[in-house]
Amino acid sequence: MATKEKWIDLFEKAVGRPPHALEIEEGQKADFDLKAIKGIAAMGLDQEATPSEPTEEVDEYDVAEEVFEDVPLGDEEETTPLETEELAPVSQADQGQAEENSEAASKEAQAIWMKAFKTYVGRQPLPEEFLLGKSSGYDVSTIHQFISDGKAAKPAKPAMTKGKKILIIAGVVAAVLALAGYGFGSYYYSRGQVAERYEAAAKKSFKDSLEYQVWSDTKKEIKTSEVKYTDTKSTQAYSKSQLLSGERMQKVGRQFLIFPKWRVVVDPGTVDLTVNTADLNVTINGVSYATTDGNNYTAKLNHLYPGTYNFVASGKVNDQDITVSSEENVTSKTEVNLSVEYLSFTVKSNLKDGDLYVGGTKIGTLNSGKLDVNKVAVAGSSAVYVKKNFEDGSSIKTETLSIKKISEGQTVTLDADGVLDRDTADRLLTAAYGKFGSYASNHNTTPDGVSDIFLNGTDDTMYKDVTADIDKNTTGAKNRAADSISFSDVDVTEVVQTGEKTFKVTFTAVYDFYYGYDSKFKSSGDIKDKISWSCNVEYVGDDDSDSSSSSSDYSNYRINGKAGESQNVSRENTVK
Predict the structure, then answer these.
(1) CA separation, residue 529 to residues 278, 432, 484, 523, 561 (Å)
(2) N or C: which end of the chain has fewer CB within 10 A?
(3) pLDDT exceeds cutoff 60 at 15
């Protein structure tokens, strides 16, 4: 009986391939009898003829694909004559066929051994483990020596394919991007951020702000074509704090079906327009709207953006050019009547040179606070008022009166709050010179209540000029000091309104410098200088107070500096 290693070696030499695992088992049953090799090899050939089960492909890294040198197991023993005789019957043709079968069987045995190793050991074999398996003819029984503790390992999970790895990575990246996008979208489309973007857009232009506004009744975006009649200067914009604290900002849908869509809701205005004259051209805020086609023309305007609208109907009636207008603040449903009427009346106002408006149309300019209006065409719902514009861009407007309340030939008075008249200005200047007299008679001591007369108190330029003049002629006199200085005959000659709350007041006053008898100069008497001067006056009263009381009370006004240098009109000198 030969050893197992010798039996396998002779089997390979005789058959041309290593024996299969089953062949080794058969050889073991025959006590590795060399004479049994032929029969066992024949059994192996029969097995090769039977289709074997398909084996799994080895992984991308397979030790079996490495190039290993065959490692001799030991010195080869010479074949005995008996052994040669036993093997001699194998012919040359049989030997070639056996070599081909041996190579195919070897590959199959290798694949079976590799699969079994990975299944029971849980990994690919190391090079030295592979060589040991090869040297055993890929005997699967040799695998047990590589299993820890002699226990079979759990079958290894198939290696993840490259495509599957790419799909998993792509899925993770997509999930991260989706979460980041959701976080950004939740912030970007939040109520506060939309309100902030609206506020910035509104400061830039009215048109830019429309992107964030919708009609309250339809929740649809406001189109540019729907605001073509809008005077953008008269529209109201909301601050971020107003939008976040009230109901003006609402959810009107979804952005990308995920995020809430916050928008500023605008209540649309509606106008029912009536004109009783045909062939008049109707404009709204200067934009052409229509031409009336009869004496009972009506139209309905929907979805007007809240604001001020000037409706004008103009044309010829009985060969007379007429213009009928009505200025309306449209915030809800409004009726506008541009029916033609003719009316004569007189307007008086404390805006002495203001402009008279009927509706939104200028009728004329007042002269010394009065204007006679003769047969002006008016609309039934027009408002009558006087307005004055100033060079600094400000303006002042009187109370308004509906044309319906004015009858033919009536005189109406339309006054504005805070307008300084001559008498009030005179009382203010007289009070100011009272403070100067107190300063002079109390040894150049600042009197009480200066800030009640002068806006900037003792820093006022007019106050500084007069007190400096007093000091110069009394305590600071270089030649002869006046024994006393008094002021009289303060007289306002003109009041000109220069702004909504500012005025220029021109006045005259008499400065009386008294010199008592002085033995050095051997004289006594008065020097009376009459000066002309102008100062600025500002209204500081309450606009909501009664106009008649606020205008007549000089405490509602303050002198705000001189408006030029004083001029000496005349001098009376009695010093002798």
Answers:
(1) 70, 18, 14, 19, 22
(2) C
(3) yes
In the chain, % of residues over pLDDT 90: 44
Residues 259, 277 share a domain: no
Torsion-angle region of 253 (φ positive above 0: left; ψ -120 to 50: alpha; else: beta): left
Tell me the range of 54-58, 186-190, 467-471 where mean pLDDT is highest: 467-471
Strand, coil or helix: 250: strand
> Measured between alpha carbons, how far is 325 from 311 in angstroms, rounded to an integer?
5
Main-chain dihedrals φ then ψ at residue 98, nearest 5 degrees: -65, -35
Contact 430, 508 (CB under 8 A): no
Q: How far apart are CA 497 and CA 500, in angstroms?
A: 8
* In a shared domain, residues 203 and 222: yes
The span from the CA of 23 to the CA of 40, in Å, is 6
Contact status, residue 283 vs residue 292, Cβ threshold 8 Å: no
Sign of CA dihedral 552, 553, 556, 558: positive
pLDDT tens digit string along 246-295? 788 988 888 788 889 899 999 999 999 999 999 999 999 999 999 999 99
Distance, CA of 229 to CA of 287 (rounded, Å): 6
Neighbours of 448 (CB within 10 A): 8
Query: Which among 482, 415, 404 has a CA at the least distance from the CA of 443?
Result: 482
- Read off the pTM: 0.46
Helix (H) or strand (E) holding 40: helix 37-49
Give the distance between the most distant pair of CA atoms in the chain. Answer: 178
Does 404 lie in the same domain as 432?
A: no
Asked, for residue 166, whether it belongs to a domain, the answer is no
- Write out the residue range of the structural domain in which residue 436 sits: 422-573
Q: How many CB atoms lie within 10 A of CB 554?
A: 21
Q: Is the dihedral of CA 547, 549, 553, 555 positive or negative?
A: negative
Within 10 angstroms of residue 213's Cβ, the number of other Cβ atoms is: 21
Helix (H, G, I), strand (E, B), or coil: what is residue 160?
Answer: coil
Q: How many domains does the chain have?
A: 4
Dihedral sign computed on CA atoms, order 375, 376, 378, 382: negative
**Can you tell me the mean pLDDT for 114-122?**
84
CA-nearest of 255, 235, 236 to 194 is: 255
CA distances from 3 to 6, 7, 10, 370, 477 (A): 5, 6, 11, 143, 147
Question: Token pair for residue 453?
Answer: 């007369």
Give the whole-angstrom CA distance, residue 469 versus residue 19. 136
Instruction: For 168-219, write each residue's pLDDT tens digit.
Output: 899 889 988 888 888 887 888 888 889 889 989 989 889 899 899 999 999 9
Q: Which of 383, 413, 443 is the last residue of a domain?
A: 413
Q: What's the CA gap between 159 and 162, in Å, rounded?
A: 9
